Amino acid sequence: MGTLSKLRRMVLRENVSVREAARRLHISRNTAKRWLAEPEMVQPTYPQRVTSPGLLDAYKEKLDLWLKADSHRGKRERRSIGSYFESIRSMGFTGSKNLVYDYCRSWKQEQANAPRHAGFVPLSFELGEAFQFDWSCEYVVIGGLRRRLEVAHTKLAASRAYVLAAYFTQSHEMLFDAHTRAFTVLGGIPKRGIYDNMRTAVDTVGKGKERSVNARFESMTGHYLFEAEFCNRAAGWEKGRVEKNVQDRRRHIWREAAEKRWNSLAELNTWLVQACQDSWSELTHPDWPELTVADVLQDERTRLMQLPKAFDGYVEQPARVTATSLIHFQRNRYSVPCEWVNSVVSLRAYPEFLRVVSVHGDMVDLVRSFERDQTFYDWQHYISLIERKPGALRNGAPFKTMPEPLQELQRQLLKNPGGDRVMAQVLSAVPLHGLDAVLAAIQIALQAGRVSAEHVLNTLAHLKDQSRPMTMGEVQTQLTLQTPPLANVTRYDSLRNSDMEAGHVQ
Questions:
Q1: DSSP state letter for 115
Q2: Rounded to 5 degrees, what are φ and ψ at 64?
Q3: How far apart are the C-alpha atoms of 363 and 357, rounded to whole Å?
Q4: Cα 175 off chain centre by
C-alpha cells in the first residue's frame, strides 16, 4: 500500500512522469501504468509463490541430535558449528556455512528461553567446612584505559563472607595470590575448597569424580592444608553460592567500581577489600535473618585453621639473556645486569613483579607489565658495560631513562671532547655511593657551574664526610699512657736553680 500511495502522489500531484516514478520506486513501468489505471486505490495483489524445500531441511534432524548431545557435554568436549557444517557437507549439503550457523544459533536461543523443569536439592554447610571459588570477567577504567579484568571470587559456604581480587589474567600466580588474599581477609582456612574444572587446577577430567590435578595447584592445597573438590561437568549449581555471588556483586560493587577512575590495579584491589568488608555488615544472613554476614563470620573464624606462612606462589621458567642484556617474557623485554649476558637465568613470575635469579644466586626484581611488545630498561644494569664502552652513552637507549640531573650533566659533558669518559666515571659512583647521594652531588656541581667528574666526586666525598662526623670517642688506638703528665712548676724551679749555682761556682 505504501508504494501505491507514493506512486499516485508523485504522478497525480507532483506531475512526475510514470517512467521517472517507476524508476524512483524500483518497480516496472508496466506495473505502474496498471496500478494507475485502476479507478480506485486498491491494494495490489501478487501471485502466491510456491515455497520450495530449503537446502537445510533434510539435515535439521541430524543437527538437532548433535546439538542436544553436545548440550550435555562439557565446554571443552563440545563440537564447533564449523564441524557440523563439514559433517553435513560430506553428506551432500550444498548450502553455505551461514545457514548452519544461523540454525544452530536459533536452536541454542530457543533452548535458553525454554522453561526449566529440573529441580535442585538445597545444600547446607557447617561453619568452617568449605569455601567456593570462581572467576568472572569485569571491565573498569585503569590509567585512563578501559581494561578487561579477571576477578577471583572466594566465598565461605556457611557464613557467606566473600572476598574479591582483580587481575589481568587467570594464570597460576594469580590463582595462588587470590587464595592468599582471601584467606588473609577471611581470617583462616576452611577444610574444603569447591571449584569447577578450571584449567589452572585440572589437567584432565575423567569419569565421574576422577580428576588429574595440576601439580602447581596441588602444591598450593598441600601448603594450606585444605581438600580440593571439583564439580561435575556442567553442574554449576554445585557451587551455586559463589555463582550467585558473581551476579550480586556485578549489580552492586562492580557497578560502583565502573563509575570510578583508577590509577592502578593495586588501588582497585585495596578498594575491593574494603567494599567487601563493608557489605558484610549490611547483608542479612539467609539462614539467620536476625544476624548479618559479619556476625556469622565471627563464629566461623573460630572453626577455621590459622593462616600459615604465605604460599610462595610463583611460576618459574628458564630464560636466556641476550647480548643486549634483555630477557623475553610474554611478548615483553626486560633488562637485567649486563654481567649476565648470554647466560641462562631463572625467571619467577609473580602477579606484580618478576624475580630473576642468576646461576650464582644473585637476584633482581623487575616491575611486571601486562602490555605487549614493550621494552623496559633499567639504566643501572648497564653501568659496568659503559665503563668499558663509554662511547655508547651518546645514543644508548637505556640511559634515556636516567633522572633529569644525570641527563643534564650528560648534555653538558658531551659538548667537550672525552665527555663520555667523564660521564662514565660519574656513573661508576652510583653503585658505590647510591643514587641519591650522586644526584645531590650533581645538583651542587651544576649550581656551581663546574661540570667535571672531579668536582662531582669531591662534592660526593665531602657530603659523605658531613653526613657522619667523627668524634673523639670513635678514635681507636692500641697505645696506652702509663704515667700521665703533671703540671709541677716546683720541679722546674729546682732544676733551674741547680743550673745557676753550677755556673756561679765555675
A1: P
A2: -60, -40
A3: 4
A4: 12
Give, in order, the Cα–Cα distances in Å from 491 to each of 147, 488, 503: 94, 6, 19
Q: 313 near 298, Cβ under 8 Å?
A: no
At the topology level, CATH places domain 130-301 in: Nucleotidyltransferase; domain 5 (3.30.420)
Q: Read off the C-alpha cell for 110.
A: 530457543
Per-domain residue ranges for the chain?
2-37, 130-301, 315-376, 388-467
Cα(488)–Cα(384) distance, rounded to whole angstroms?
64
* Nearest of 394, 330, 327 to residue 364 by alpha carbon: 327
Backbone angles phi, psi at 134, to 5 degrees: -160, 165
Rounded distance between C-alpha atoms, residue 244 and residue 275, angstroms = 18
Q: Are 378 and 398 in contact (CB under 8 A)?
A: yes
Give the pLDDT of the chain (506 residues) as one tens digit per residue.
567 777 877 887 788 888 888 888 888 888 888 878 876 656 566 555 544 567 888 888 888 888 888 887 766 678 888 888 888 888 888 888 888 888 888 888 887 766 555 556 666 788 989 999 999 888 999 988 999 999 999 999 889 999 999 999 999 999 999 999 999 999 999 999 999 888 888 888 887 778 888 888 888 988 898 988 888 776 666 677 777 778 778 878 888 898 899 999 999 999 999 999 999 998 888 888 899 999 999 999 999 999 999 999 899 999 999 999 999 999 999 999 999 999 999 999 999 999 999 988 899 999 999 888 899 999 889 888 888 888 888 888 888 888 888 888 888 888 888 888 888 888 888 888 888 888 888 888 888 776 777 777 777 777 766 655 444 344 454 556 666 666 666 666 766 666 555 555 44
